[in-house]
Amino acid sequence: MPATSSGSARPEEPRTAADRHLGPGAHALMRRNFGNIGNAQFQHVAAREVGAPDPPEVVEVAARTFMIQPGMANVALFETDEGLLLVDAGCAGDGPALLRAVRRVSARPLHTVVFTHGHVDHAFGLWAFLEAGERPRVVGHENLLDHYARYSRTAGLNAAINGQRPGANGRSWPSAPEDFVVPDITFRDSLELRIGGERFVVRHAKGETDDAAWVWAPRRRVIAAGDLVVGYLPNAGNPRKVQRYAEEWADAAEGMAALGAECVITGHGDCVRGAEAIRDELLTMAEYLRHIVRHTLDGLNAGLRPDEIVESLAVPDHLAAHPRLQPHYDRPEFICRNVIRRYGGWWDGYPANLLPSPTVTQAREVAHLAGGVDALAARARELADSDLRMACHVAEWAFLAEPQSPSAQNCYVEVFDRRREAERSLMGKLAFSQPHQRVAAARA
């Protein structure tokens, strides 16, 4: 069905020094993963006054059923005779544009809102509807309240690891009571809603979060999946975030696959259409996740160290080749480590690392043994052509041993630039861009 737009495109945003540090292809990868996201909103995802760079895209995926892309996350809209069911509400800055997009589709009142989880890009744009006088009932899983509480307690941490800057209210991350819309109705396993004489089923499923939910509209054969389906390898490993749940994610994928849906409205990217395509993606996703979990548990049960388990992980070709399960955001190795963390604790199994000397002290000793940081920098550049992973270790030792050394600084940036440009996952690219920031701080 045809797509509609709620306005004209905005001009391209200027790039900042921080943006340039992400390297070539990083912003294209962000757009590929998250759609309508720009430099400004990417650094102000909690700010109500900073919206997405382009107007929302609205696609009618079934009768009276719409996928809206107001920003980096998708929103599902179901129109009924009694009112509207909205699934998710985008970032805080997406609220006004989402409200306009919804009102271009329908004048019916907003009856119910379901949050698929409490992430900053899915549950924070509803304020615009509330300020406009809408009074919907809000539904979320019972763990959503704990999710909000965790956001408040770790606002500084989340702002730092997500590269966020303060908005007009002085906050870089949701933390004050007025930042959160608290559900009117919570549920544990599943909840049936009746709106306009039609049945909608909300189901809980751990995945990227422990408060995740998805919505099944049986009459329309449509699933609003939230981030349980995103069009790339599930974000079940994220190195800098709280625990993910690969096994339960696989359970959810199999549960959705059994319904015979004709459309899945995804949390990000394009929707999935056609029963066969949906079953193929969901069942392959489940098999992929179960393969990683099985490999990891087999290694733990065999007494292997974490690095041995990760290094020996091999993904079968038919899983690795699936076009909608590519590692554009997460990586299989990261998922493997998250399973290790869940079942095996944080120690890497090397006795020296149980109560280690500080990393900077270790780096200085390595530099002393090598004959100085210049020798380490030269060796890192030499290794970069044959063993880029090892080159990164050597370059980092040089910089940590003597951060003010121009030789170490230049080598650190150059080697990790090569690593970043070869990396396919967005999380990897972001991590490998950090030498730019550290060198800039040292020079300042």
Automatic annotation (TrEMBL):
Q: Region labeled Disordered — which residues? A: 1-23
Instruction: List residues of the Metallo-beta-lactamase domain.
Output: 72-268
Where along the chain is composition biased (Basic and acidic residues)? Answer: 10-22
Under Pfam families, the record lists: Alkyl_sulf_dimr, Lactamase_B
Q: Which PANTHER family match?
A: ALKYL/ARYL-SULFATASE, METALLO-BETA-LACTAMASE DOMAIN-CONTAINING PROTEIN
- Annotated protein name in UniProt: Metallo-beta-lactamase domain-containing protein
User: What taxonomic classification does the UniProt entry list for its organism?
Assistant: Bacteria, Bacillati, Actinomycetota, Actinomycetes, Kitasatosporales
